Every structure is written in C-alpha cells, then in structure tokens.
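Example 5.3 — Integral membrane protein DGCR2/IDD
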Amino acid sequence: MRTVLRFFVAIVLVHCTEEIEENCTDFQGKIIEHGNLYVPGPSVCSMCVCYHSEPKWCSDIYCDPPYFCRKFRVKERCCEFECLDPPGDIAAKMLQEHRSKYRNSADLEHCKNHLLKIGIILFSLIYFHIL
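Solution (predicted structure tokens):
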C-alpha cells in the first residue's frame, strides 16, 4: 500500500512541476516558452528570460535618440523613433538630407552589415548576462 501511495505522490509531483514551467506572454501577446528570451513589455527596450511564467534576469537596451530630432516618440520596437518636429524645422530638413544621402549611397549595405553585427553582439551580451 505504501509503495502505491509513494508512486501516486511521485506522479502528482512530476505533473505539478511540469505545470510550474509555464510559458510567458510577450508585449505583442505571443506565447514564449519557459527558458527563452523575450520582451515582456510595457517597455520594448527590455529583454528578459521567461522563467516559470515570470520575466527574470532582465537587461535594458539603451539606444541614442535621433540626432536630428528635437522632439521624438519611441515606436513599437526598441530603438525605433518617430521624429515629431514640424516639416519646416531645420532639424527635420537635416534628417531628410541625411536619409536621402544614405539611400542613394552604396554604403547602405555596409551600414546594414554593421547594424547586424552590433545586433548579434548585443544579443550575445544579453543572452550570456555580460551586460
């Protein structure tokens, strides 16, 4: 009888511990499995590990605001800004010139490669908790 009771308790404990490793939900409503990195929100510039349905070991991601904008708003994704300066503003004109220069330049691919490398480095630093 005791063996049956111990077996039953062991099965219940295993079942309960499986339920403890619940998933998390990110700021967009996506389900994130236990142990994976995700952005819990409301801040889109914070990355955490999903640990038993709770955000743990979070790291903030810092981005410089847009250089040419006096007024700006952070958009839905981290480091994505919207310039709120009026169209006739000098800063807005400088921003447009800067963007058109890079769109017409062959250096755009070079710039994208650097951004990709920076992103990979940041992800690695956050993932391995070096930051």
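Remark. Strands lie at 24-25, 31-32, 37-38, 46-51, 54-60, 72-74, 81-83.
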